[in-house]
Amino acid sequence: MDLTEKQISFEYKFKGKIVNLRVDDALLPNGTTAKREIVEHNGGVCVAPLDDEYNLYFVKQFRYPYMEIVTELPAGKLEKGEDPFEAGKRELKEETGATAQKYVDLGKLYPTPGYCGEIIRIWACRVDENCGQNLDEDEFLEVERIPLKKAVEMVLNNEIPDSKTQVGILKAAFLVENGKL
Question: Which residue in 29, 32, 24 sits closest to 4, CA to CA?
Fold first, then answer.
């Protein structure tokens, strides 16, 4: 069975700095049509930085949509046309002050595929230097190092709700366990 839907038309309802919202008319596999509400986003990056003592670097920051402080791996949004790998290295250095030479590609994540086109690309790395944060003017966060084993437990105990962070932690732990990171 062909599961593909085809865009017939679209209309932008909102164009913003970070997201655009459009409504599409889509042709479904059975020949009928449906409305699809789509959030366009340039995508993001996430890095799981591991030091020599098997601690992961995290950032704690207030996330307005949830009205709470969230513990996350260093991450950021992509500018249009920006190289994701270079953006990941930039975000790591800006948010934590850390740099790394050895990076392992952990793949991509579709955080909300039902309505948003955002793709987050994730890497793990081994930290080789820490030279201080360089935060954006509107960025307020604290860096915390957590042992990898404890971070895995935090994911399993639902103490880290952020999806990109969960994926980064679990994939990095798997690579460490198998001698690949």
Answer: 29
On whether the CB atoms of residues 21 and 14 are closer than 8 A, the answer is yes
Which of 11, 53, 68, 137 is an active site residue?
Answer: 137
Contact call for residues 73 and 165 (beta carbons, < 8 A):
yes
DSSP-based three-state secondary structure for 75: strand
Which residue, chain included where needed, has tokens 């994730």?
Answer: 122
Q: For 89-121, write each residue's pLDDT tens digit.
A: 999 999 999 999 899 999 999 999 999 999 999
Q: Catalytic site residue 159? A: no
**Given a cut of 80, is residue 123 above it in pLDDT?**
yes
Statement: residue 12 has pLDDT above 90: yes
The structure's pTM equals 0.93
Residue type, 144: E
Q: How far apart are CA 45 and CA 58, in angstroms?
A: 14
